[in-house]
Write a structure and sequence with these properties.
The chain is built from two helices and six strands; from the N terminus they run H-E-H-E-E-E-E-E. It is of the alpha+beta class. Strand 1, helix 2 and strand 2 form a beta-alpha-beta unit.
Length: 117
């Protein structure tokens, strides 16, 4: 279960960001999780509260946006969902492809409370 390491790194990254920018509170962290990244979102959701307990993220929400695993067929240029079609081009049946999206796990947004006016 490598998700625990991913949540720990997320905590380090956000904590470093907060320290660098003088942020004392985080409302929410939004991440993009690629279908092909081998990261299991349910494990992230389960581990997140345990890993961030006692930190600046303890009361911050975690939102996970799934990024589809898209590829372009190298034989016919069809763009298709890799998982949905088990890696094969639905147009020509080829397994030759270039992955376009869905391999990464990235922090998309760190939301902080607005300053009172």
């Amino acid at each position: 279960m490598h998700e625990i390491g991913i949540v720990r790194q997320l905590l380090r990254t956000v904590t470093d960001f907060a320290a660098e920018h003088g942020v004392s509170r985080i409302c929410e962290v939004v991440v993009d999780c690629g279908e092909l990244s081998l990261v299991i979102p349910d494990y992230l959701r389960e581990l997140y509260p345990v890993v961030v307990k006692g930190s600046i993220l303890e009361n911050a929400g975690l939102t996970i946006h799934m990024v589809p695993g898209l590829a372009e067929c190298e034989d016919c240029d069809e763009i298709f969902n890799v998982i949905e079609h088990k890696g094969y081009c639905p147009n020509c049946g080829s397994f030759n492809k270039t992955v376009l999206s869905g391999k990464d796990f990235t922090i998309r947004e760190i939301l902080v409370p607005e300053e009172p006016e």
